[in-house]
Amino acid sequence: MPGRRWVKVLLGAICLGLAAFWVWALFFPPTKESVVMISDPSWSERAQVICREANLRRDELMDLTRIADAGEDALQRRADIIDDATIIVEEMIDEVLKVRPVDAEDASLVDTWENLYRTLIEDRRSYTEELRRGTNEPFAETMIESPVSSYLNDFATGNRMLACKAPMDLAV
C-alpha cells in the first residue's frame, strides 16, 4: 500500500509538532511580566511581612459559632468582628504606605493600589452598617469592570506580596 505512506508521514509530522509544542509550553514558556509590577522588590518584601503579620492578627478574630447557636445579637457581633478586622486591614495599609517607592511610575501604581484598598475598606464599613440595621445580605464590593479585590489581587500577585491580597473573610 504505497499510496498510504504519505498519510503516515503526515500524521507522524502532526504528532511530532504537537509533542514539540507541549514540551515548549510546559518547560519553556515565554516570561510574562505583570503590568502592575513595581521595580523596587524591597518595597514588596517589606509589604509582604507587614501584611502577613496583619493577617495573623485578623485570624485571631475568627468566630466559628454555629448559626443555630448565634443568638439574637448575631448580626451585631458579626458587624463588630468585621469592624475589628477592617481596622487591622486599614492599619496594615497605613503601615505599608509609611514607605513609598521613589520611582514615579512605581509611586503611581502604589497610589492606585492604595485607592482601591481604601475603596474596599469603605465597602466593608458600609456592609457592617447594613448588618447593624438587621440586613443580612451577602457582601458586595465596588465593581470596576470586575470586583475591586481582583485588581488588588493582581497587584499583590504581580509583586510577590500574596499576604497583601484582598481579605476574603467576607466572601460568600
Computed structural class: mainly alpha
Largest sheet: 2 strands, antiparallel
Task: Characterize the overall form.
Answer: elongated
Strand proportion, as a percent range, falls in: under 5%
**Cα-to-Cα separation, first versus last residue:** 64 Å
Largest beta sheet: strand ordering: 1-2
Oligomeric state of the chains? Answer: single chain
> How many domains, in number, for the residues?
2
Q: What low-confidence regions span 5 or more consecutive residues with pLDDT below 50?
A: none
Mean pLDDT, rounded to whole units? 88
Total beta strand runs: 2
| Order of SSEs | HHHHEEH
Number of helices: 5
Spatial extent as radius of gyration: 24 Å
Estimate percent helicity.
55-70%
Short description:
This protein is mainly α and 172 residues long. It has helices at 5-27, 41-59, 74-96, 104-132, 148-158; strands at residues 143-144, 146-147.
Descriptive account of the structure:
The chain folds into two domains: 1-30; 41-164. The model has no long low-confidence stretch (mean pLDDT 88). The protein has five helices and two strands. It has a two-stranded antiparallel sheet. β1 and β2 (146-147) form a beta hairpin. With 172 residues, the protein is mostly helical.
